């Protein structure tokens, strides 16, 4: 069942109904010869592709515009699942981007996090139960409490808000505030990552500063911008590492490989930060981070192939009987 819509979708007639049946009907009406054999989200697809590439893969993670983790759990631990005793393991989609919706991480939020949260339509939440009541003209891109702290959708604007604060305090760019610096999303997360990773030449830092409307700036301005980008990136990597470390301790496996898809992980320095932090937070746990590029789509393809094979095998057995 489709419990609730997210992002900008507003189709109340589908809520609490079988989404697969609706999709299958729509495909048939378009005379498309497609049979839906499985439905899964991007994180699950990433784990499945990861398992195809590495036998030790037990965690899948999306780390880009959005954020989420899924992992392999012992079925007996899923107490709300009545059929848990029929299986040894089950894949759990954590939807951990919503971690903190209940206020449990408010203590660690900075004033800049609160600004970003306050600018979203549903402050402090990734809950869409009442989404259908809102005019589609007002729908914006929403994100969860935890996800807002570091995801690719918000990292750039988080840096921009910090730079604006420093500028207003007279600590950056001689206190001169450009119109672009006050404009939401004028600094991209991709550029922040490039600034944080670059060498001493400062080409990317200059590009970031000039994208905010500044033509003159000092070496100190460049160092401050680079430092702010680094702080935001390091904090994000640390927060993600905390969740991964908890899972490694919970799973109690000798070795766990973690399949990751998303733009943030594609940057070498970010992946190195994850390695360093997880090693420190989960000492003694053997793990490997690896890229599962296009994992959501390719993983879904693998699941569809498995489901089709299982269906054919069951049909063959029935025929023999």
From TrEMBL:
Q: Which GO terms describe its molecular function?
A: ATP binding; D-glucose binding; fructokinase activity; glucokinase activity
Listed pathway(s)? Carbohydrate metabolism; hexose metabolism; Carbohydrate degradation; glycolysis; D-glyceraldehyde 3-phosphate and glycerone phosphate from D-glucose: step 1/4
EC assignment: 2.7.1.-
Taken from the record, one Pfam family name reads Hexokinase_1
Catalysed transformations (reactions): D-glucose + ATP = D-glucose 6-phosphate + ADP + H(+); a D-hexose + ATP = a D-hexose 6-phosphate + ADP + H(+)
GO CC terms of this entry: cytosol; mitochondrion
- The answer on whether this UniProt entry bears the keyword Protein biosynthesis reads no
Q: Where is the Hexokinase N-terminal domain?
A: 2-52
PROSITE patterns, sorted = HEXOKINASE_2 (PS51748)
List, for all copies, the residue spans of the domain called Hexokinase C-terminal.
Answer: 59-306
Q: Enzyme group, top EC level?
A: transferase
Annotated coiled-coil segments of the chain: none
One of its GO biological process terms is:
glucose metabolic process
UniProt keyword list: ATP-binding, Glycolysis, Kinase, Nucleotide-binding, Transferase
User: What family is reported?
Assistant: Belongs to the hexokinase family.
- Recorded protein name is Phosphotransferase
Identify the species of origin: Leptotrombidium deliense
Q: What is the lineage of its organism?
A: Eukaryota, Metazoa, Ecdysozoa, Arthropoda, Chelicerata
């Amino acid at each position: 069942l489709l419990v609730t819509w997210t992002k900008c979708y507003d189709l109340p007639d589908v809520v609490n109904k079988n989404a697969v049946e609706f999709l299958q009907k729509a495909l048939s009406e378009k005379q498309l010869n497609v049979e839906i054999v499985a439905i899964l989200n991007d994180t699950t697809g990433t784990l499945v592709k990861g398992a195809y590439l590495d036998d030790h893969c037990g965690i899948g993670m999306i780390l880009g515009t959005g954020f989420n983790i899924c992992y392999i759990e012992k079925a007996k631990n899923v107490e709300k699942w009545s059929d848990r005793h029929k299986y040894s393991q089950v894949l759990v989609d954590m939807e951990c981007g919503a971690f903190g919706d209940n206020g449990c991480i408010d203590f660690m939020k900075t004033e800049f996090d609160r600004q970003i949260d306050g600018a979203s339509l549903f402050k402090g939440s990734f809950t869409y139960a009442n989404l259908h009541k809102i005019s589609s003209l007002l729908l914006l891109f929403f994100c969860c409490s935890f996800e807002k702290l570091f995801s690719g959708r918000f990292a750039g604007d988080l840096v921009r808000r910090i730079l604006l604060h420093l500028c207003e305090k007279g600590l950056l760019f001689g206190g001169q505030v450009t119109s672009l610096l006050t404009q939401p999303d004028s600094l991209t997360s991709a550029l922040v990552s490039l600034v944080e990773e670059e060498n001493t030449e400062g080409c990317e830092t200059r590009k970031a500063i000039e994208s905010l409307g500044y033509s003159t700036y000092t070496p100190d301005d460049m160092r401050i911008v680079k430092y702010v980008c680094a702080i935001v990136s390091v904090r994000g990597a640390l927060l993600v590492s905390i969740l991964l470390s908890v899972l490694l301790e919970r799973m109690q496996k000798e070795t766990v490989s973690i399949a990751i898809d998303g733009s943030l992980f594609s940057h070498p320095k970010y992946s190195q930060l994850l390695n360093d932090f997880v090693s420190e937070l989960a000492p003694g746990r053997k793990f490997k981070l690896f890229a599962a590029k296009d994992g959501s789509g390719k993983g879904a393809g693998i699941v569809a192939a498995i489901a089709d094979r299982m269906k054919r095998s069951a049909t063959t057995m029935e025929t023999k009987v």
